[in-house]
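Query structure, 112 tokens:
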């Protein structure tokens, strides 16, 4: 049972990492294909939202990988490891996005 939970957890972490890398590549492509020119602000809110989400997700991926590799937290104590991972990734991604968006808006205060 424990091995199956570890496999599910590792697969969830791998999918989260692949999604993060795919989102980063997609964002880079979208940034190059801007058709409508927007006024360049010192702190581009869209870029900082994306950066905040990525920087919020990265520590969770690292934390969970360390927990699995060192076996410090037995996965049998978590009722649903997939839900545990997804909820941590979602909360940290949204939290990082909100934090960086707020900083960008404060820094752009009065320039719009």
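Result returned for the query:
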């Amino acid at each position: 049972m424990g091995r199956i939970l570890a496999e599910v957890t590792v697969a969830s972490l791998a999918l989260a990492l692949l999604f993060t890398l795919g989102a980063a590549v997609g964002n880079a492509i979208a940034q190059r294909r801007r058709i409508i020119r927007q006024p360049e602000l010192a702190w581009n809110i869209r870029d900082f939202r994306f950066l905040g989400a990525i920087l919020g997700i990265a520590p969770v991926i690292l934390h969970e990988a360390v927990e699995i590799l060192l076996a410090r937290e037995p996965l049998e104590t978590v009722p649903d490891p997939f839900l545990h991972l997804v909820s941590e990734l979602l909360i940290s991604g949204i939290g990082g996005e909100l934090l960086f968006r707020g900083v960008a808006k404060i820094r752009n205060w009065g320039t719009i």
